[in-house]
Every structure is written in structure tokens, then in C-alpha cells.
Amino acid sequence: MLDASTRVVVVQFPHWASFAAALGRAARTAFEPIVQSVVEHVPLVEVTAPGVIVFATRGPSRYVGGDDRLAALVQSTVSGATHVAFGVGIADGRLAAGIAARHAIQSGEPLVVPPEASARWLATSSVRALLECVEVIGAVKGAAGVGVPGADDIASYRDVVSLLERLGLYRFGDVAALSEADLIARFGAFGRDLSR
User: Fold this and answer.
1) CA Rg, the chain, in Å?
2) Which single residue of 5, 62, 79, 101 could bond 87 by disulfide (Cβ 3.0 to 4.6 Å)?
3) What is the pTM of this model?
């Protein structure tokens, strides 16, 4: 399992659900060639939801000469396998890498957050980013514990984001200013995950 401090690559296709809906039954296998294109360079990947690929950078990054080169390789490889919009993000932990991937979708270029800079980089991001990255982080701590996040998981994230905003905690930096004990007291296991 990839923890919050592990350097992670997230490849995210934000419109995969609508793309897959248009394909109908063929959607079941449509993502496989994209995953296989990545597996040619990185043997151990995780598909956390349709349209989301996650893997640790440690070995692959060293092999190709660093995170920037790895991001460029993944961008090039996936671009060769599909014409569907996607983003590649690298950061410390799934959440930061997922948010980086969402930013990369807009720019069309991979986004690499420097090692040990993810907390500072995330501090200015809106807590609403949790909703955009539920496919990335929801598979780790979803209601079922594993697998693709379902409606209950998404509703849980919406409830947490709504409560954070009602408490005046609009940015991850606001949340980070709270103690882990306070977050756990209010949000339970989810609070522990937020503190990381």
C-alpha cells in the first residue's frame, strides 16, 4: 500500500466515465491498452478506478533518471495509446499526486511537485479537491475499504468537504494547522488520513 509519504504517479482521465458510456459494452476493455502501455515501462501499477492509474515512483524514477523524466515518459506513452484527455501528476502521496494530475489535465503537461514539497504545495489548494480526487484516494479509505469508490464513498467525501467549509477550513493549509487529535476527534479515521 502506498502511504502519504510515498512518491506517487497518478495518471487520471477526468472524462473517462462519459467516454466509457459512449462506448457501451466495449468500455470494459477500452482502458486495458492504456494500462498495458504504462506496464511496458512500469511493471507494478494499480488501477484504482476506471480512468485512474497509480504507481510508486521509487524504482521507475531511478531507472529513467528522475521524476521529471518519468513524468515525460508516462505522458508520451499514454499519449501514444489514446486521444482522450488525461493528466500525469507526481507528488508525495496519492492525494497530492491526484491533485497534481488534475492540474496537469488543464495544462496538457505533467506536473511534478518536488520531493518533500507536497504539503506546502497542497496548503493553498481548496479542500474541494477531495471531491475531484475521490477515485484516487477513495479506493484506499472508501466505505467498503477497497475497490472503486461507490455512491456512499462520494457522499462521505461531500459531507466531509461541506463540514470543513462550514467550519471555515477552505484550504488544506487550514486543515493542516489543526492537530491530528482534533481531526480524529471530529472525523475519526478520515481525520487521521486528513492529518497526513
Assistant:
1) 16
2) 101
3) 0.82
